[in-house]
Amino acid sequence: MPDITFITNGGKVITAPEDSNLLRMSLREKGGIPFKCGGGLCGTCKCLVEEGLENTDAVKKKEEKLLTKEEIEQGYRLACQTFLKGDVKVSWEESPKGGNAGAGQVKPKAEA
Ligand code: FES
Q1: Which intervals of the chain are annotated as region Disordered (predicted)?
Q2: Structural domain includes residue 82
Q3: Is the CB of 35 under 6 A from ligand 1?
Q4: Which residue among 49, 59, 83, 94 has the highest number of C-beta atoms inside a 10 angstrom radius?
Q5: Is residue 72 lining ligand 1, measured as CB closer than 6 Å?
Q6: Is 27 within the bounds of a domain?
């Protein structure tokens, strides 16, 4: 069964059933990938498959809309549109602008 490593979440590793959806597994196991719509519309779940891109299924049309060609070439996927056939390691950007970021953001502002 595929192992998912959530790099941005301290390297947490979970084991997922074959053909499982990346975002669904993240939700179930508290992997921490950000999301909003869960349906390939918002782009919030954008993540980088740092290892195991060959273990993911084909890039969907919705992903081609929300990701640039370059991003797709680099291995970016929308977690809610990605299904797994084998081990992957994923990272993502943590809430870029503070906003309602989750706990655990330790980014002191440098004083000018
Ligand atoms: S959660 Fe909105 S595109 Fe994946």
Answers
A1: 93-112
A2: yes
A3: yes
A4: 49
A5: no
A6: yes
22 vs 105: CA distance, rounded Å? 24
Rounded Cα–Cα distance for residues 26 and 2 (Å) = 13
Q: pLDDT value at position 49?
A: 98
Listing DSSP states for 72-89 in one string gives HHHTEEEGGG-BBSS-EE
Whole-model pTM: value is 0.84
Locate the ligand 1 atom nearest the alpha carbon of residue 34 and give its number: 1
Ligand 1 atom closest to the CA of 40, numbered from 1: 3
Whether residue 51 lies inside any domain: the answer is yes
Our count of domains for the chain comes to 1
Among 22, 24, 25, 35, the mutation site with the greatest number of ligand 1 atoms within 8 A of its Cβ is 35
The domain in which residue 33 lies consists of 3-91
Beta partners for residue 39, in sequence order = none
pLDDT per residue as tens digits for the range 49-100 = 999 999 999 999 999 999 999 999 999 999 999 999 999 999 999 875 554 4
